[in-house]
Design goal:
About 5% of the residues lie in helices and about 40% in strands. By secondary structure, it is mainly beta. The protein folds into two domains: about 10-50, no CATH class; about 55-195, Immunoglobulin-like (Sandwich), CATH 2.60.40.10. Strands 6, 8, 9, 10, 12 and 13 form a six-stranded mixed sheet that branches. A three-stranded antiparallel sheet has the order 5-7-11, with no helix packed on it. Residues about 1-10 have low confidence and may be disordered.
Length: about 200
Amino acid sequence: MIEDDLQMAIYDTDTLDTMHSNTGRWLQYVCPGLGPVAVDGQFLTPEGGLVDPAALAAQALASIGIEGPAVRTSPNPNDLVVNVPTWLWVDQGWWQAYEATATAGRVTVTVTARPTSTAWSLGDGAGIRCDAGRPWRAGLPESATDCSHTYRRASDGLELSATVSLEVTWTSNIGAGGSLPAISRTSAIEVVVDEIQAIGQD
């Protein structure tokens, strides 16, 4: 028993909405013309513990299981070239909404995490911020993407990383909902930047 269990106004008589708990902490059995009817010798029958839907949302988020983003480049990571723009993007199969659900008693909460932006660390001291980026395909002009980087020096190995921010919202079957702090996921790959020597001839 907790203090608010002793409140007797369980349901609104007109709307039948619960009055003091959205989680169905207690139920009262009422028959027309008879009023409250005892169930197993009691007029108030418990139906599980009090549930904090926001805490349940945090529990759902902890189980959401989102791996690091699938990083893509063009040219390929081992064939980047000095002074040639490198296209950057996150695989479209990864860039999607992710959901997880948690239930306690009659309360069910669903958490949804949606990617919003990507922070790229290029390994040469530069960094840019994009959304998912656009996959390269033959025939596209360089201006078709706003997510690219041009390396100015050759390197046998640099770490390129992408950190994706995801906004988190939650809903429930009792009308409660809201947002949780954003989360992020990071992946890193090694890239090699080559320098192509060209010989001009008159």
